[in-house]
Amino acid sequence: MAFWTDGPDSVPGAHRKKLDITFHETKVKPQVTYTTVKAADLDAQRDSLNGKPIELTSGSCATTPSNPSDLRAGTDKKNYSSYSVSAVDGDVRTRLYITIREDTDVSRRIRRVTNTDKLIVRGTAYTTQNASALTILVDTFDVAGT
Length: 146
Fold this sequence. Notes:
There is one protein chain. By secondary structure, the protein is mainly β. It has a single domain (about 35-145), classed as CATH 2.40.50.140. The chain has helices spanning about 40-45, 105-110; strands spanning about 35, 55-60, 80-85, 95-100, 120-125, 135-145. The chain has a five-stranded mixed beta barrel. It is elongated and about 80 Å long.
């Protein structure tokens, strides 16, 4: 028993239509080269790092900053979490923050980090409204020594 006809559309009833399917190549995420930045150089390089992909070793994560001027423009507390981090390899005056988009692998992994873990953070650095802060929009991170 057929549920459709192969006749012209002018004939009453259901008609089988040919469905054309086209497949496209998957888009490959561009390879990003991160520039390693030493904490001791942050104060001098802060402004030149804006919008650049960097890699930085940081210390423990603290709570989310409550001052919106310490966050990157375009991020909000509903879709992003931000953490204050300490510099590992030098004393700096620049306050460091890492910003992570919620509902990502990175956001799930950061919740398992302990206070004593050192993080190797890779992401795009952004200057903030606060002249003494730098935030990194995190792409990936690793725990140093693992």
